[in-house]
């Protein structure tokens, strides 16, 4: 009667996100294949795995054997053999001692196993993500990638390591219990099976109903969270258009639906316990009635009845559990599929070997064709030659392909046909690291890291000395600004660098590029998100940066590029004209038109 | 917060009552079992001759009782959920409604992220708290108390076992909880660190690749991840002791019950059935203690959440409604009288300093100035997104504070720089401007805003869906949608808060052209960065450090204002040359 072994182990670690009980179950697409790959992760921990299994087996053996001792003890009491009792009790305590010890090993091993797998899987995934081509990151939601990294990986390891123990112990318990029951009394065993059938039927019925509602609840919860997020972050617009009432009405509707579904789901979930209780007790009565009958007719002893009652309970629990584990494992495998999907992506091509030591910075685009999406050509037969040390500006409307040129030169994307050469060497043959080390880039959206100012500057050159860092800052008019920060160069930037203004951030990222002392410099709309007078300040910094370097500048504001050696006007992926500012102004072509628009505000 | 419970007091009462039913059945069971064993099987009072009839009748009784218990349990679940979820729903709706009435300074202090958590996560915690209180707590307490009572009525001497075991269990639980709780905050910090590195890598991938720092990032991640995993493992290892220790206490208690039971049976004061029942009670009681600690955890989390939600509920909007219904003879006049403004909480840092400005009906006013000079603040004061710190703003000759907020905002259409686009269809996004607009009006507005050209290229046109955050649209497209929305509103005053920054100049010029043509009577206030955008305005003001540094037409400013000339030159260095 005492379900003493299992009840206490139900204690869950507070605060952790263990496998969700009876939550919506996802169906994996290629279960078997994914399972095999998952198994590989476990295979690396063979020793631990074997120890874990041994511990589980011992735990199961103990929990199958202990009720037998308990029933013997009761028998001794009812038979009046009180002096034999102490021996049995000591043996019982020893068995329970071993049981506890092995439970301890089991939980420690499974903790270590799961954490070591989490660690490896996350590192593998991260190594992969770092080496993925920009194309992948550009075309996939960052939130989704993050969630695979954290939620999915954790879910996999938790579920699998916990379920693995439960699976093994569940199956062993069933087998062990059935064997013990058969050994004691085959007739009663058969009768107990009635309970099992009831248990399976009830579990199946309830959990399929539950799953439906849990899934629906999950969807509603998602949409509720979405509404809240959208409306709170877009609150200004909501208020400006007096839409509060409509928004509240929509929210209330979702909220009401969620509540209704939630109530049903929770009621179904909560009924599982009482229903199982009824089934267990029916089982008990069957065993007691028939056991009593057998005992009266002398087939079995009463101790056997007591043992049977425990066994019958022990029997029903793993069945209920296995049903849950099945759902958990399926969800975990679906998560694993998502993780492996990233791991299966192709890495960047880094096969080039040529170095750039003697390169002077001549850039040649020869008949380059490129499209991000097949069929939507972005660059068409693009030809461009930039001489060493020259400053070339790319101008043109949004979507004309300016940024694409940069993406291709840095090999963030690879061209479809044609070739890009640096000093006559195809960039595909140049060692990718070399290429990028010698090409510095300043982007419109500044990327700074949650680290000190100094480390952010040194990001472009790890071995730079403090003096070099300071010199670079001075050259870029940001030494003064940095000195004014609370801790100067050691000031920690907040995540995403919010404690600096946009202009300050941009100055830092230019100083960073400067420190790299690259052969080629690329400025991609580096100043378009700051106002024109701050821009002026930044530009002064950039003049020094561009001295004696091949520079490619993409600019929205024509005022910033008038002193370029060559201005290239692009339209729909091709060059429409090029030349110096004066030349182009004289030609009165596209550049003149753009220039006039920017000045006059009206299209000519 | 208790007021929210009032409505559901009936459920809140029924749930524990049914729970009493369920627990009583649970507690009666071991007794019946003991009868079945002692009288039915062993036949103790009948010279050790079993009584099959007794087994069956008692058995049937048991099944009836247990079914009754099941019914009570399910009913209790139904009422508990009806109570807690409806309670949570009411609070959630009220909290959201309250948020939708808050002033910007309040939403800013709460921060968007925290408001979202409060409406979603915290409500769930609160619901759990209620369920635990009216169900879990009641059940556990009854099992605990009932277990002790039943056990003592079986035989007083079993009480010794419980008296000895209880302190151990309690000490054990307190020890683990107190050890683990500080670890959880460390765990959270480490998790944040891993997420942060991850985030930086995903969004800053271009810079990482450009400076060839993949190896460094791998090392950085590996450190953060290793440290997280280590802490996690520490927590798990700590808890790995918990179950075995608890089991040992329980099992020793059971052995003790058997031993004591044997002595009692020997002395004739107890029966073997009694011993078996006692074993069940012991595990029931000790389990209840364990569960109680979990309930306390839920409760403490729920209380913290409740406090956070309450902070929202007790908030009163700092900007209060006026009573004026907005019917005026003048239409589209805005007047700033000696207006000063500082953001709440930063009172000593004046953003706007004694601004005096009158904008006449139908006028187009452009505002120019560097980042942080107070341009956006100036226009945000007109629809009362914020209140002035000093001075007065009049719309159509009436102080904005006298207007009913919705009437005031009806007069104003505003398009923001960071266009807020919602995840519905394009046409629904525009329709926000005027829910009653006809399709023709929608198209007209989109045409004025130069949005039609890209809407038409989409296969589903106006019906195309917009993803959350508008990620399926470019910056310029989002801005044009926001402008369409503002135009559709057909308000007296139209405000563009740097809302054309992502448009190329040609498109921008066409937009202003169309506005002049179709909406010439509307007062237009536009904030811009580019001289080209503002030069055709009736009047341009240049803001500098919160004051109006210059005011006039393009030609006037070009001739007189040095700041304007400075901006002009910074944008068009060799401007003089164009004439030639």
Task: Write a structural description.
The complex is a heterodimer of chains A (604) and B (580). Chain A has 604 residues and is an alpha/beta fold. Chain A has a domain at 29-122 and 141-183: ABC transporter type 1, transmembrane domain (ABC transporter transmembrane region fold). In chain A, 62% of the residues lie in helices and 10% in strands. Chain A has helices at 4-7, 31-43, 46-79, 85-130, 134-139, 142-184, 186-233, 235-240, 244-296, 302-343, 402-409, 432-437, 453-457, 466-475, 479-484, 502-515, 532-546, 581-587, 590-600, and strands spanning 363-371, 377-386, 391-395, 417-422, 425-426, 439-442, 520-524, 550-554, 566-571, 574-579. In chain A, the strands form two sheets. Chain A has a six-stranded mixed β-sheet with strand order 6-7-8-3-9-10, sandwiched between helices. Chain A has a four-stranded antiparallel β-sheet with strand order 2-1-4-5, covered by helices on one side. In chain A, strand 7 (520-524), helix 17 and strand 8 (550-554) form a beta-alpha-beta unit. In chain A, helix 6 packs antiparallel against helix 7 (186-233). The N and C termini of chain A lie far apart (94 Å). With 580 residues, chain B is of the alpha/beta class. Chain B has a domain at 326-410 and 533-580: P-loop containing nucleotide triphosphate hydrolases (Rossmann fold, 3-Layer(aba) Sandwich), CATH 3.40.50.300. Chain B has 20 helices and ten strands. In chain B, a hairpin with a 2-residue loop joins strand 9 (539-544) and strand 10 (547-552). The chains are: A alpha/beta (604), B alpha/beta (580).
Highest CATH level, the class of the domain at 29-122 and 141-183 in chain A: Mainly Alpha
- SS class of chain A: alpha/beta
Q: Work out the helix count of chain A.
A: 19
Give me the strand/helix succession of chain B.
Answer: HHHHHHHHHHEEEHEEHEHHHHEHEHEEHH
The CATH architecture name of the domain at 326-410 and 533-580 in chain B reads: 3-Layer(aba) Sandwich
* Count of beta strands of chain B: 10
Mean pLDDT of chain A: 82
Coarse morphology of chain A: elongated
The major beta sheet of chain B can be summarized as:
6 strands, mixed
**The biggest beta sheet of chain A, please?**
6 strands, mixed
